[in-house]
Every structure is written in structure tokens, then in C-alpha cells.
Amino acid sequence: MKELILTIAKALVDKPDEVRVTERKKERLTVLELHVAPGDMGKVIGRQGRIAKAIRNVLKAYAIKNNVHVVLDIVND
Question: What is the pLDDT of residues 45-69, one digit of tens each?
């Protein structure tokens, strides 16, 4: 999952070397935090959050297929 989000985010931003994904586990929930450069935040979120929603939908499909619970947080560094 972590690699999936990393690949998608790096394709969207201007500074792919500053993209990183951290993973935290809480009981049965996995929280993925996507960290991008401040100038790239808008590219990852998109207009009215459309790109962020699309990334979350892809992650949701992956999670359902693998029977896990995942949440994506987009963090500004």
C-alpha cells in the first residue's frame, strides 16, 4: 500500500524526491501519511479535493481486496 501511494504521488508533483509516506498501525487500522513539499500540496489535493479523493478511492479498492482498513492523511511539511 505504501509503495502504491508513493508511486501515484511522485507522478503528480514537481519535487518527487521530497515525497515520502509513513505508515502507522493502530490495532486493525493502518494510517498512511503522505508528506509532500508545500508547493506540491495543491497538486496532490487537486481542485475541490478531486485528486485526493481519487487517490483514496484507489487505496480503498486495494484495502477491500486485501481485507484491511486503511486511512490516508495528506500532511504538509
Answer: 999 999 999 999 999 999 999 999 9
